[in-house]
Amino acid sequence: MAKKYDVYGIGNALVDLEFEVTDNFFTENDIEKGMMTLVDEERQTSLMAAITGHQVKKQSGGSAANTIIAVNQFGGSSYYSCKVGNDELGKFYHKDLEDAGVDSNLHPDHLPEGITGKCLVMVTPDAERTMNTFLGITSDFSVKEIDENALKDSSYIYIEGYLIPSDNGREAMLRAKELANKHGVKTALTFSDPSMVKYFKDGLAQVVGEGVDLLFCNEEEARLYTGKEDILQAREELKKIAKTFCITQGSNGAMIFDGETFIDIEPYTVKAIDSNGAGDMFAGAFLYGITHGHSFAQAGKIASLASSRVVAKFGPRLEWHQAKEVMNHLFEN
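RESULT FIELD:
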């Protein structure tokens, strides 16, 4: 019987506020470039006040949310479990998800007291993105936000690695995976960021447990998790924890393991403006592909082209027509 949702996601709910900055800004404000750093609200507010570059985007975000919205943009169906507060940004977040056609556990008239999380995304001229995140109420994301009925009615669950730093987040990841196994739903996990693997590897290993059906990571994360410097050795190690996986390689494309063989996915050359959301888009487009009859190789091509289009613009998402253009380019020529 067909499932209602292609993908059920869990992750942080953050309103992305994106700004253009220069490298000098990082030096002057003691920011680690290229990483996601958790900060308190006071620190985030002071950084935003110090930025002289202009704001280029404001939209609902969080890594898994970007992926889930991408699934919908390509023509799939998805559900997102998250937590926002009853402030203006919380209502904005719910409406943005709704406008993207994503079902969720959020009810605008019954949002809990609290401050919605914000992610300050700083983009430099070399297109690299650096994030300072104030989690707000999403740091309280827990098993209470999981909707078992929606999860059961999904083909895949997609679990965001950014949940791992908090005890309740890790507990929710473990519970979601347990429910997926119970209901025969395939599990997809993303490591999310090198810092998650570097500082919370034991927690991630706990979530991986006896293995996942699909893993998303980049080269650095693959090396950090496996302890292997050589990427070819690292990918062999990943076979022990994931039935299938995608290792993104930035401008070099990606390598995909379909359970039997490795597939090299060619990159699409573009002038990079903003790398924010490239990995999220890759995962969303790939999940759409494999839940809609495409092979792993075809899904990899969709994901590679879609993520290249994201890198060539500001913000972590495509416009709806751009997702359709990706499919037309690949399958109607």
